[in-house]
Amino acid sequence: MHHTYPKFFPLLFYLFFPISLYTQNIETVMESPPVMSNGGINMSHIFNYSPDSVSNYDDYSYYLSGNLNTTLWGIVNLPISFAYTNNQTTANLPQPFNRFSLTPSYKWAKAHIGYSSMEFSPYTLSGHEFLGGGIELTPENGLRIKALYGRFNKATKPDTFNTEPCFQRIGGGLMVGYEHDRFDISGNVFKARDDIESIDISENEINNSLTPSDNLSGSMMLRIKLPKGVVFSGEYGISAINHDISRTDSIGGDNFLFENEGDVSVYHAYQTSISQSSDLGTIGATYERVAPNYKTFGAYYFTNDYENITANLSTTLFKKVNISMDAGFQKDNLENQKTNTSKRAIYSANISSPITKKLTLGASFSNVESYVHIRDIYDEVTRSNQYQNIDTLSYTQINMATSINGNYILKSSKKQRQNLNMVFSYQEASEQQEDDLRFVGNRIYNSTISYLFSLIQLRFNLSATVNHNYNDMPQQTLQLISYNLSARKVFGENFRTAFTGTYSNSFNSDGALSNIINLRLSGGYNLKKRHNFNLSLAMINNNTTRGHSTHYSANFSYSYTFNVSVKREKKKLLFEGRF
């Protein structure tokens, strides 16, 4: 169907969205469709049934998601996405949308609106979700700018379900950098602060369980490309946290950038690396140190209190043998604040090579050796000489793994292909006391053999796999054997089917423990390349020494994609859609 739009329609866009086009090719803009949209919607229904009372599944749940991307004159992108499900933790308080995000872009400019996440540095802002707005500018001259502002934590009040309360946290940041052929340099600053008035909580609760905090962090990064393939990079990060700003507010503290009065801690982190690439391969080394308790409000998790030194080497011999090696040393308790001190030595190697046109072999080895010293504070302060209260809780943990894999092509032609894959792996985890070097740990042996068969013209694939796992523990042994059969067939261009069956049996030195049968049948149909229907049926039968359980499930999903556009034709704007 076609509709005619007024000729001044493009002018309305520039009136309400005043974007400069001096650097844009006007002719290209005018030749592009004024509006192009594409997107889709997906709906899934999941049904569960268990005739016994052992299994615990929701009888029915559904999931709805969709996305829409609109392009205006070929230069501005406006993507929108949403998701909704009835399987929510707060089922009595339904939400119209779980998440909403908008990411419009224009040439080298991109904006984030709604629920988004951005990346500055691992030491400042790293993937934390926020509700607000952000912008990324990456012009061709090498300048890089990122900025954001929004809510990082929603205020949560204490309730009868013992939900952990938290203040509303508002944050923002700025990153400025420059990228060049020979060097990259950037700096960023991130600020986040709790809103004391966002929840009503007593003074006693604030003092004992929850305190509003303030954080200011920043980092500088430099990367230089030197002659002869040498690359040097380094980054320094700093984070300052005021763990309780409620008292500073009460005494009149009002610092715009950071509340520096009260319980303030400052942490440091830095990382540097150097590498060289040549015809022989690549060699490099990295050093990183993160202070104890280092964290920022711009990341969910932080690994801190460690010093890490690593080196790596990769090369190719005789144009067919690929070799890579890594070695490293890591230790924690940098400032002797903890009663435990750990040191780790890590080294690994990988080698792979095509022996013949049909046979490819590979092997890998890795070893992690950790030394742990548990310090008894009372014994240390009461010791009068070096031979008194000698600590016997010093031990070494060894985790070693090695594997061998091979792939052999039995047959390869235009009509048929047959492959045979074999993998064997060995893992060892043990502990050795300082005064007792006997082996105490687990040895795990795992063997897998797979056969793959394909009829290319008939679009039929068949695979069979046998896996054996043997775990040798100090008190007993545990074995698991599983058999898997999988078949896939495509009929015509639109209908596809698949069947997967697995049987596994586990037992120890005392006898059988369990046997599990897992059967799954699925099918999919594509209608006019825009409508996709999928149905899968599954049955899991589990027999254990504790009892028997069976679970049946069915999953039906439908997805639909579309695109519409407004095109020019003989000085008219025509609406065209494909559904």
Quick take:
This protein is mostly beta strands and 579 residues long. It has helices at 9-16, 26-31, 203-208, 246-250, 377-382; strands at residues 4-5, 35-49, 60-72, 76-85, 99-102, 105-106, 109-119, 126-137, 143-153, 168-179, 183-195, 214-226, 230-242, 264-278, 281-290, 306-317, 321-332, 340-354, 359-374, 394-412, 416-433, 436-455, 460-472, 477-491, 495-508, 511-527, 531-544, 547-568, 573-578. The protein has a 29-stranded antiparallel sheet that branches.
Structure write-up:
- The chain has 579 residues and is mainly beta.
- It has a domain at 108-276.
- It has five helices and 29 strands.
- The chain has helices at 9-16, 26-31, 203-208, 246-250, 377-382; strands at residues 4-5, 35-49, 60-72, 76-85, 99-102, 105-106, 109-119, 126-137, 143-153, 168-179, 183-195, 214-226, 230-242, 264-278, 281-290, 306-317, 321-332, 340-354, 359-374, 394-412, 416-433, 436-455, 460-472, 477-491, 495-508, 511-527, 531-544, 547-568, 573-578.
- A hairpin with a 5-residue loop joins strand 8 and strand 9.
